[in-house]
Amino acid sequence: MLEVFGRRPYLVLLVMALLLAPVPFLQLNDYIVHVLTLFLIFAVFATGWNITLGLLGLKTLGHHAFFAIGAYASALVSHYFGVSPWITMWLGALIAAVAGIIIGFPILRIRSMPHVAIVTLAFAEIVRLVFANLKDITRGELGFWGIPPFNPIGIGDTAIRFGLGNAAGSFALAAVLFVGVHLILLLLLRGRCGLTFLAIRDAEAAAESLGVRLAAWKLFAFGISAAVVGLSGAVYAHYLMILTPTSVAGPEMLISLLAMIIVGGVGRFFGPIYGALLLTATSELLRDFGDYRMLLYGALIIVFVFIAPAGIAGLKPRLGRKPAEATKPVEAV
Amino acid sequence: MLQLERVNVHYGATRVLWDVSMEVGAGEIVAIMGPNGSGKSTVLKAAMGLKKPSSGVVRLDGEELQARSATVRPQRGMSIVLERRRLFPRMSVEENVMLGAYTRKTAEARETYRWVLDLLPEIKPHLNATAGKLSGGQQQMVAIARGLMANPRVLLMDEPFLGLSPAMVKTVCSIMQMINERGVAILFNEQNAKLSFAMSHRGYLLESGRVVLSGSGEDMLDHPEVRRVYLGMREEAA
Predict the structure, then answer these.
(1) Please, which of A194, B13, B45, B118 could form a disulfide with A189 given CB 3.0 to 4.6 Å?
(2) Does residue B119 sit at the A interface (CB-CB below 8 Å)?
(3) Chosen from A210, A213, A321, A325 to mutate, greatest number of chain B CBs within 10 A
């Protein structure tokens, strides 16, 4: 667990929250706040994906489908039925969770990791094609615009507004989502639940022999993971107020998010956050290069896989750590 | 206590156990000996529920378990130390050991934890160490400690001496005897005939998935076939 969470995970999260808290009041350039908002949303997305990919050890490559499901479900219900996004965001998370459990069932029967990757990838492509072809409802690749932003919140005489164009409010909402989701996941994963996931990842047969119900825990992990990703998708939809199937469930989203997790540190709780920060910022800085920025993503993944397979989160302890003492062998009787 | 009756196991179309029947009585140490590929590990996996028998009966204290998953065994008083330890290498030793009590209440688990640490004091200094970084012998002790945390009445041990130094083999042998003296029955498999039958009350010889010989540990060691094939002794020399 130490490897996953580090020594003081709550303190790390508190420091992050304290760093985020003043941002809406700093009168920063709206573009910078926009990039930071995207970072927070993608960090939640990446953390959610990391539950199955890093903690459970299943090489799932289709979580952008849950992002799209959460985004479209929330956007469509709020748009067509006039339901507040404050409610539909939870609906998006719930529908994504159900989708996660449904795709989890066939995956339980697959032992080969490459096949798990292919099945989940195919699932994401199916989801993308469904949203692209339901043109009467989603307008397909033309884009589903007119998604309502989150309703304003009044504090005293001040109304906090959300959605693109309201940078400070949107950032504050994303920051609350970021801290809230990570706090809940810390509370959940630092105990029996996290130990169970890691036990399944590291020695499935041993875990089963200890009494771990593999199928139930894997489905639970899929459900939680998809719910978190779906929730981030819903917030993304009501922030940008426009969705296209390819932008949320296309290969660029897959590569970007996978890069964030790998570069940040697969299986490290805070790894995806560091990866999301680095790559969201890099992606925006390289926006002038258009599609060529994906080359940089690819190169970064290759570099990290070879030089630092544990990612950014795995580099930290090494820098300040004393050489480990050799463990004294046990005396023979 | 633990009985296997005419157990057959297939891996796909390949049959690996042929009507295997075995019994472990309360407080016994029982060895399964046989060459590589004879099905020793499969017997333990079938008993533990990690491999479902295609036919036959696995019974613990009269309750038939062959159709039940492995997850119910610890609650019924059975646990296993898997081949090559199968620790959770990135967790601490303490986390590994405590996970052995996965199905038990925390208070009971704490009590057993103290008992296990008294029995295996060698792991005490390493409780906060990462399990995967320990030596093979230390890892075996952690695996045994984890197996004991379920408070089993019968402990299965799959190749407990595999990859250990001779000194560590002696240590593990004496730990097994200590565990047994505290009333825990042990069913283990091993390729070394002398080692396995010398320390066991009873033994089974398995060849090509079939039980070809069974008897007390002493009888097994004295059996001409065992002496000739597995101990390399000629009859006249014996």
Answers:
(1) A194
(2) no
(3) A210
